[in-house]
Design a protein that fits this description.
The complex is a heterodimer of chains A (663) and B (517). Chain A is an alpha/beta fold. Chain A contains 28 helices and 24 strands. Chain B has a domain of 90 residues. A 3-stranded antiparallel beta sheet of chain B has the order 8-7-9. A two-stranded parallel sheet of chain B has the order 1-4. The N terminus and C terminus of chain B are likely disordered. The chains are: A alpha/beta (663), B mainly alpha (517). Chains A and B meet through α5, α6, α8, α9 and α10 of A and α16, α18, α19 and α20 of B.
Chain lengths: 663, 517
């Protein structure tokens, strides 16, 4: 902290004196224009005036630890958005106390994200809702323990417009009814995976919340009756019902009888939906813009195509993943839907070069094309895409092994806006990367399993793609430390980096990575040459690191974990299976990392049972997920396991033999 | 039972001509008679013969029409017309009376023996109680026997309801030229109507007249083609639907037997409510099942031990074409009463029993769980108790529903109503508990040497008392203190956990606020 402070102080030293005379409003305006959180932090740290301005103006806050929460809520009275999803070991008591301590400071709060905050129950939510009269959006998704009482607590916020209850597994019709009655102005609701909800609940929702615009009922066990109720919603624009196996064509026909507001429908993985149902849906809903029908159709009939053609003007997104297609079908789609912006054809059998060229010939607006696992396409398809879709931004070609650098060249030359390309398992080489380097807008590049890529190719990319955010080099085992040096030099914005099984990488390579300050996710699986030295440089350099995978890094020992424990304060997810860790190192790690929520520690054969017991006790309140050997189930104390579960931790037991090396 | 049935049949045969002999009785003295008889019914005294008791008495809710009918009945009973009862057999009456006499003597003897023993023995209180119980049972059975016998004594009285329509017809049709033959003591219709307003309201009176006028023609038609069943005067008489929820009496709404294709039997209230339906003719003990009675009879002598005596009496012993039998509820005005305009017969005696208890009796069985639901049939109570307390779907307005969809329909219908979660009441008590219990809990955990991880926040006591999980009781160890010693590595200079100031006051204030609630 002090080091960083000095650095920034010297950087902003010249203006530091004058800033104090500017009014808080002006400084607030300045801060509003700073897009990067790091920059705002720098300003805050070098100037009290900026700190005051920030305190008065700050609208959004993301809290990572429980302890400073009350103080933070007190010091930012103008908060509108509060993100507690990553707040470690947040529980009812601490949330309620923090909210109570903030007094009237939360009066302006509009949006709260509590996703995965599984420790928070109805008491905390009640306190929060009571303190925030203007609450408009609440996200409770993946709070797997949340049930009707939690839903009822949220329902006390009468002005609520958005609510996400994804995977709140205990929410039943009662909870949904509470929400429906309590929040009549609800516009967006997601109850994905709330498997207890039935047609009755959906029916009441449709009756009580006429303002609903977006509804997600994916993976619910609801049937056609729900669609009958939903069709009465006059303002519904977006409906997702992925994996609703009880819904069939009859339901879609009921749905088609509603108002014309519906714009987006997702029937992916609905096993009993056929093209006939979709045809009748399209027939009724003339203004459909997005149609997701992935993994549910087995064939497409003429009726569907003719109906699809009636959506010519409006349809922009069409996903037909997993469907057996033919050239004539793709041609018909191309002719019928000229305004397509996105098409999904992943895992569609029968996609050929001819089909693609007849599809794209009329669809020049296409920006996203997903051809994952369409293994028959060759460079010709890429040529026709490049010729027709100048606006292309995203191209997914995973497992299209017939393409090579010539096709890539065409794409890279003609589509300057390309932001994302997936070339996993396409066997491309350094030459392809040389062409791709022309796309200076590239954000996401996936090159997994392309083992012919070497440092040279990485150097090409690093030279021009400074905006790269995600790079996947899974099993690109020709890459060495030099490649990483070039990467760290050229692509400073990288957040996600996958280097699994690139086993030529050593500590010096990781030393280069240490300069990537924005790196959040780093996967180093099976890098057998790296030791505590490399880990230290990453732990010290990559301040933003959230997720780290060190599985099968056999040379990493207690010292490496010690470096993590001392430096990687933001680390939330860690895999240390097969590492040479002892009980002491593990205890130190788990007691120090205050943000750690998810740890996978299978096959730590140097750790004794006492070591596990102590380490887990130390981390108990924070852990949400734990992967551990089944053998430990019987030897760990039952109190500990009970305690873990009481704190909302889910344990995944791995059924493999328990081996000790130093007993 | 056997006697009762036969008397019913005789009554049906006789009742066709009852009408002409009945009189409209509205005299004050008759009214007193009626009230007496009702009283007797409620408190029957042992050994008392009650020949004149009308088997019907209305619940308090019954309207004044019924009261009038009742009077008519009473009058009817006091002026039996011998010429009507074709089967009237003095011999039978004498034998019956003898039987009654014997019975009463039996009871008298037993009671006397008790009283004499009471004087003798002081210590046998237990035995005495048992005896008393025995005698009470005996008395009950004797009384019932008496009533049945009394019914057979006066066959024309046996089914007074069958005479009711006639009475009503009389009073109704007085104004019309087509009157039945009236007795001389019958009052003019004006009289009979004028005392109605005395009891009830004028509107009721008008209503009566209206109904009389409107239904006149209809009834005339019906009289021209009388109901063939049993030849009794059981024309469906137009009546108001006085009661009663159409409960599920285990019947046959869809059966729709054409009227006349079946024989209608009407049991008396006493028979319906009798705990036993089969009585030993020798000792008077009652049984619920005929088979049990036959088993019992074996003890009275060898003649009852023969295979023939023990065999189940066959159904077709009496008649070749056993007529379809249906039952009528004795409650006048009930839809199950044969005089009702839309009469729906009951299928079995069990149906009659359940229907009568459910619709016309007090609900004396209260559910011990919810203390609100009451039942008159014990089986209903048992059925309810199976479900009581479970699957209660509760609305915020306090209404409960047995099914979720019903609750949701209710919630959808009414603005502001919301389903109540089952734990809503628990919440309050828990909150009050929290403050009391949190302190000791904290102390315990401290004395055990392990600090709850959140105790540094000063708020752990809030979740110490989680209702249903172990969170509060297992406090995670904090490793910071013990690791200071073990640690070879220097502690990080920047310790994130250090912020002791901000939590205590907020924690305290939360507790206080909680207490205010």
């Amino acid at each position: 902290m002090s080091r960083e402070g000095q650095k920034l102080d010297s950087a902003a030293g010249a203006g530091g004196v004058g800033i104090g005379v500017l009014s808080l409003d002006l400084l607030g305006q300045v801060l509003d224009r700073l897009r990067e959180p790091r920059d705002r932090k720098a300003c805050r740290l070098v100037s009290r005036a900026f700190e005051r301005a920030e305190a008065a103006h700050r609208r959004a806050l993301r809290v990572l630890r429980r302890e400073p929460l009350p103080r933070l809520l007190r010091s930012f009275p103008a908060l509108e958005r509060l993100d507690l999803s990553a707040c470690a070991s947040l529980d009812d008591g601490s949330l309620a106390a923090a909210v109570a301590g903030a007094g009237g400071g939360l009066a302006g709060l509009r949006r709260v994200c509590l996703a995965r905050a599984s420790g928070v129950g109805w008491r905390g939510l009640e306190a929060l809702v009571a303190a925030c009269p203007r609450l408009e959006a609440v996200d409770l998704s993946h709070c797997v323990g949340a049930g009707d009482r939690e839903a009822a607590a949220v329902a006390a916020a009468a002005g609520l417009r958005e609510l996400r209850l994804d995977k709140c597994l205990a929410v039943t019709d009662m909870g949904l009814a509470k929400v429906a009655v309590g929040c009549p102005r609800l516009e967006k609701l997601s109850v994905k995976w709330c498997r207890e909800i039935s047609d009755i609940g959906i029916d009441l929702l449709a009756k009580k919340c006429p303002e609903l615009r977006s509804l997600n009922i994916s993976y619910l066990k609801v049937g056609n009756e729900s669609l009958r109720s939903i069709s009465t919603l006059e303002k519904l624009e977006e409906l997702a019902m992925v994996g609703c196996s009880c819904i069939d064509d009859e339901g879609l026909e009921l749905l088609s009888k509603g108002s014309d507001s519906l714009q987006s429908v997702d029937v992916s993985r609905c096993d009993h939906v056929t093209y006939q149902g979709l045809a009748s849906l399209i027939d009724g809903r003339k203004f459909l813009q997005k149609l997701h029908a992935a993994d549910c159709l087995h064939e497409i009939g003429q009726r569907f195509l003719s109906k699809l053609a009636t959506l010519k003007e409006t349809l922009t997104v069409l996903k037909l993943d997993g469907l057996g297609v033919s050239d004539s079908l793709l041609q018909a789609i191309g002719e019928g839907c000229n305004h397509l912006v996105e098409i999904g054809l992943s895992k569609c059998s029968g996609v050929t070069d001819e089909g693609i060229s007849s599809l794209v010939a009329r669809c020049s607006d296409l920006r996203t094309i997903n051809l994952t696992c369409c293994n028959f396409i060759t460079n010709n398809a890429l040529h026709s895409i490049a010729d027709n879709c100048k606006m292309l931004e995203c191209l997914r070609l995973e497992s299209c092994s017939l393409i090579n650098d010539k096709g890539i060249k065409q794409i890279a030359t003609c589509c300057p806006n390309l932001k994302e390309i997936d070339l996993t398992d396409c066997g491309v080489n350094d030459a392809a990367l040389e062409y791709l380097a022309k796309c200076s807008e590239l954000r996401i590049l996936k090159l997994g399993l392309c083992s012919s890529i070497s440092d040279k190719g990485i150097a090409f990319i690093s030279s021009n793609c400074g905006k790269l955010v995600e790079l996947d080099l899974y099993r690109c085992n020709s890459i060495t430390d030099d490649g990483l040096a070039a990467l760290a030099n050229g692509c400073k914005k990288i957040k996600l980096l996958n280097l699994c099984y690139c086993n030529k990488i050593t500590d010096s390579g990781l030393g280069h990575l240490g300069s990537l300050e924005e790196l959040t996710n780093l996967e180093l699986r099976c890098l057998v040459r790296i030791t505590c030295i490399g880990i230290s440089s990453i732990a010290i350099g990559c301040k933003s690191l959230i997720e780290l995978d060190l599985k099968r890094c056999y040379s990493v020992d207690d010292a490496g974990l010690g470096a993590l424990a001392r430096n990687a304060f933001n680390l939330r997810q860690l895999t240390i299976s097969y590492c040479q860790v002892t009980g002491l190192g593990l205890c130190h790690l788990l007691s120090s990392l205050r943000c750690l929520q998810d740890i996978k520690m299978v096959h730590l054969s140097w750790v004794s049972i006492e070591g596990f017991e102590m380490a887990l006790r130390a981390a108990c309140g924070r852990l949400k997920k734990l992967k551990i050997l089944t053998g430990l189930k019987t030897v760990l104390s039952p109190e500990l396991l009970q305690m873990l579960q009481a704190c909302g931790c889910r344990i995944r037991w791995v059924n493999k033999p328990l081996v000790y090396k130093d007993c | 039972m056997e006697g009762g049935m036969s008397s019913l049949e005789t009554a049906m045969k006789a009742s066709s001509s009852v009408a002409s002999g009945t009189a409209r009785n509205a005299d004050p003295d008759q009214q007193t008679v009626r009230s007496n008889s009702v009283e007797q019914f409620y408190f029957p005294r042992p050994g008392q013969s009650l020949p004149g008791i009308p088997p019907f008495f209305g619940p308090p809710s019954s309207s004044l029409y019924l009261a009038n009918d009742n009077e008519a009945k009473v009058g009817n009973q006091f002026e039996p017309n011998p010429s009507q009862s074709t089967d009237w057999d003095p011999q039978a009456i004498v034998s019956n009376l003898t039987f009654l006499e014997q019975k009463i003597k039996q009871v008298k003897d037993v009671v006397q023996s008790i009283s004499s023993r009471e004087n003798q023995v002081a210590g046998g209180s237990c035995e005495l109680a048992a005896k008393q119980q025995l005698i009470t049972a005996d008395l009950t059975s004797i009384i019932i026997q008496l009533i049945t016998t009394a019914g057979s004594l006066l066959p024309s009285m046996k089914n007074p309801l069958s005479s009711n329509p006639a009475v009503r017809q009389l009073s109704n049709t007085l104004g019309s030229p087509m009157g039945f033959g009236m007795n001389a003591n019958q009052r003019p219709s004006v009289d009979s109507k004028t005392d109605i307003p005395d009891i009830g309201k004028a509107s009721g009176y008008e209503e009566l007249i209206n109904s009389l006028n409107t239904t006149q023609d209809e009834r005339d038609d019906l009289i021209k083609c009388p109901n063939p069943c049993g030849g009794e005067g059981s024309e469906p008489t137009p009546m108001e639907d006085h009661d009663v929820k159409e409960s599920d009496d285990g019947d046959h709404e869809g059966e729709n037997l054409p009227p006349g294709s079946y024989v209608v039997l009407q049991l008396e209230k006493e028979e319906i409510l009798a705990p036993h339906t089969h009585f030993c003719l020798i000792c008077g003990k009652g049984f619920k099942r005929d088979a049990n009675l036959r088993m019992h009879m074996r003890g009275h002598g060898d003649e009852y031990k023969t295979a023939a005596a023990l065999a189940k009496p066959t159904k077709d012993s009496g008649s070749d074409h056993a007529p379809v039998t249906r039952y009528s509820c004795p409650f006048v005005g009930c839809k199950r009463n044969k005089e009702h305009k839309k009469f729906q017969p009951l299928k079995t005696i069990l149906c009659v029993k359940n229907h009568y208890k459910r619709s016309h009796c007090d609900k004396s069985y209260t559910c011990s769980r919810c203390n609100t639901k009451k039942f008159s049939v014990i089986a209903d109570l048992k059925t309810h108790e199976k479900h009581c307390g479970r699957d209660k779907w509760l609305c915020s307005c306090g209404t409960t529903f047995s099914r979720k969809d019903k609750l949701f329909g209710h919630v959808a219908l009414f603005q502001g109503h919301t389903p109540a979660l089952p734990m809503d009441d628990v919440k309050v008590s828990e909150a009050s508990e929290q403050q009391q219990d949190s302190e000791p809990m904290n102390e315990i955990s401290r004395s055990m040497g392990c600090f709850p991880c959140s105790s540094s926040d000063g708020i752990s006591n809030l979740d110490m008392k989680m209702a249903d999980d172990a969170r509060g009781y297992y406090s995670p160890l904090s490793f910071d203190p013990c690791f200071g010693a073990l640690d070879d590595f220097t502690r990080p200079g920047f310790d994130i956990s250090e912020d002791p100031f901000s939590f205590l006051p907020s924690g305290c204030s939360y507790v206080q606020q909680n207490g205010d609630n």
